[in-house]
Amino acid sequence: MLLAKEISYQHSQRFQLQVPHLQLKQGEILSIIGPNGSGKSTLLRLLGRLWNPTSGQILLDGVPLSQWDGCEIAKRLAMLPQVHDHSIEWTVRELVEFGRHPHKTWYKRLSSEDEKVIRWALEVTKMEDFQDRPLTALSGGERQRAWIAMTLAQSSNILLLDEPTTYLDIAHQLEVMELVKTLNQEFGLTVVMVLHDINQATLYSDRLVVMKNGRVHMDGSPEEVIQPSMFQDVFGIEVSIQHSDKPTFIPMRTCCDQGRK
Amino acid sequence: MEGLSAQESKGTTHPLFRKRVIVLILLVLGLLGAVCYAVFAGPVSFTSTELIDGVLHQQDNMAKRIVWDLRLPRILIGLIVGICLALSGSILQGVMRNPLSDPGIIGVSSGAGVIATTMLIIFPTTAATFLPIGAFVGAFGTTLLIYFLSWNQGASSHRIILVGVAINALIGAILSSLMLLFSDRVQSVLPWLSGGIGGVGWSQFQMVVGYALIAIVLSFFAAHHLRVLSLGDEVAKLLGHRVERSRFFLILLSSLLAAIAVSVSGLIGFVGLVIPHILRMIIGNDARYLLPASALGGALLVTLADAFARTWFDPIELPVGVFLSILGGPFFLFILLKGMRKNATS
After folding, report:
1. Residue B15 domain-assigned?
2. Residue A37 or residue B66, greater confidence
3. Do B9 and A109 lie within an 8 Å CB cutoff?
4. Which CATH architecture describes the domain A2-76+156-254?
5. With an 8 Å Cβ cutoff, is B284 touching chain A?
6. Which residues are CB-contacts of B253 (< 8 A; sequence separation ≥ 6)?
7. Contact assignment for B6 to A110 by CB distance below 8 Å
8. Is B6 domain-assigned?
9. What is the total count of domains within chain B?
């Protein structure tokens, strides 16, 4: 699994991320929440080796990411960054085939194993009927599912998602969240995601990490984290919290200054 | 290529599959037709029996001398130039993620040109053998320069074009200064600068054919890299792909291709822009199809354009580069205007 040890990352003069210790547990869904600019995505990008920490190490199965071969990481850890390039023309099927890239030599045909994984990825994301459509002809929700299918085709056991629901309408947001839950519960994937919607994070995660000014402010179960004091400290808002199965919050008003400095 | 059979075995068909096959077949047929036309077209005409007698039976007649010594090397060099320019353009466009990257527009060709001109003017004796290498050094240096100057968290389309145009202007100035300084020797370089394959013979063919074969074979490996890079740097990296290494290889290759064309034909523009652009609109951006189709299309365009350029304006022979610029200039404007209209409506 992933373990971040004493990592820091100097993003700019004004912003530095520091995480002394963060351990990912097998089989959990962990969501990173926090205000804009708190370092949520930075942390995820460090975990996904898109950026290298300025100091400290991130260990995958006990070995620092820097010592791994790129393809070997890709077989164990898949990440979907925020994809903004909508001019990519591949069909869904072709996109998902790229997910097999770390598993095969480029001049070789897809093996029956590859085919099986691709079929599974298309099936679980409900993209089978769309497989010959170009990505440019899909709606935002379908396109997001297609990209998730590509990461699934890597058959890794860790999946990192950077704001997978941004720009989607509420129905498609829930569809993606349900998909994440299925992947976690039925197929045992360990998931780390950055989410903006705190109620969704609470509803679908086993664990929440709250970021503030580049530091981990809180780390715990939704019940532990979703407290009025946390919203006041981190987001600078007053909330009312309702407890049912999982806690949900309703924002009331901003509280003058505090918190977000 | 490999893609054709892979598609069938899957049972599903790519929406563009038929179009791709048809386009590739048409290009092959078109190219054969163009070559035949180029063999027969010209101020002196022959019947096919005269031609076959001359070339196959080694009779020393008029047909043999004109076709074998003049037209054939010229056609073969036209093919090489067309293939190299079109491949270089498609690869550059893929690696810089910009449909306007063309060795002629962003200064890669003129980078090759300035070194080649220097060699031709200052060291005319060594130029014959080392011209392609000199041109390659110039092309590669310029491409790297453009790439690093415009790279800022990903090379943005605008920056590449702006940097390329600036470098192109700078190199143009260097070229002009060279010609003023060595005005007595300019005469030998002039036809070359306007881009043409007018006086070429077997010796030029021998000079480039080896390099061309190497570059074309290397292009078979380019498709895979272009495909993975098309997903964007981050996704490619996350899939375990060595992005920087791939990109370096592709830049090296496109410079080599452009340099081969420049060293034998001078500055011929627009083939690398027009051909991949048209083909991309029809058969999509998949490099497995786009690269072979571009190679065929480039060969077709240059062969045909050269045949027209030397016959239509009889008794003058227009350099093929000039002829192509007359066609290519308006086409470039057309692309720009169409792009603008698209941006305005969306």
Report:
1. no
2. A37
3. yes
4. 3-Layer(aba) Sandwich (3.40)
5. yes
6. B91, B215, B218, B219, B222
7. yes
8. no
9. 1
